[in-house]
Design goal:
Number of helices: 3
Order of helices and strands: HEEEEEEEHEHE
Strand content: 25-35%
Oligomer: single chain
Largest sheet: 5 strands, mixed
CATH architecture of the largest domain: Beta Barrel
Distance between the termini: 84 Å
Strand order of the largest sheet: 3-2-1-9-4
Number of domains: 2
Radius of gyration: 23 Å
CATH class of the largest domain: Mainly Beta
CATH topology of the largest domain: L,D-transpeptidase catalytic domain-like
Length: 159
């Protein structure tokens, strides 16, 4: 009986110690909420952390027939250097958000293509990916971990 009581006391002390240690560790590393918002019609991407805008970048999205599809996704995987298997194009700082290969990544002349895509012609758009300048893609790549929500929004156009 004496040994059983001692074991129960020791077990309680260990469990209490363990729980205290775990709670203090969690308190020091509070999770932040990150989200990537893609606005197709406005051709911008906004990165949000804890409800506050961290980045806003010009982007280029899909052209007619190769649209970037609106929806809720998440960063599935990341590759610092990647080459498209379908198009042979370099895609630096790729963050894939669909199973069929759509990604947020660096691309050539992203700012100019964003302007042209928004105001003149969609023919300069992507094959469905979200293109950024290489510098902006690097910043976003370093900021967003795998699992970060990606919300792609298409606004209604007036007719």
């Amino acid at each position: 009986m004496k040994n059983a009581l001692m074991n129960a006391i020791c077990w309680s002390a260990l469990v209490g110690l363990h729980l205290t240690t775990a709670s203090s560790a969690w308190a020091d590393n509070e999770a932040t909420t990150k989200e990537i918002r893609v606005y197709i019609d406005r051709q911008i991407l906004i990165a949000v952390e804890d409800g506050k805008e961290v980045y806003q970048f010009d982007i280029v999205t899909g052209r007619d027939g190769k649209e970037t599809t609106a929806g809720q996704y998440e960063v599935l995987r990341k590759h610092k250097k990647y080459t498209s298997k379908a198009y042979g194009a370099e895609m630096p700082y790729s963050m894939f958000f669909t199973e069929d290969g759509k990604a947020i990544h660096g691309t050539q002349m992203a700012t100019l293509r964003s302007y042209l895509h928004s105001y003149l012609t969609q023919s300069v758009g992507s094959h469905g990916c979200v293109g950024l300048t290489d510098d902006n893609a690097l910043a976003l790549f370093e900021w967003a971990p795998v699992g970060t929500p990606v919300i792609v929004m298409a606004e209604e156009k007036d007719e």
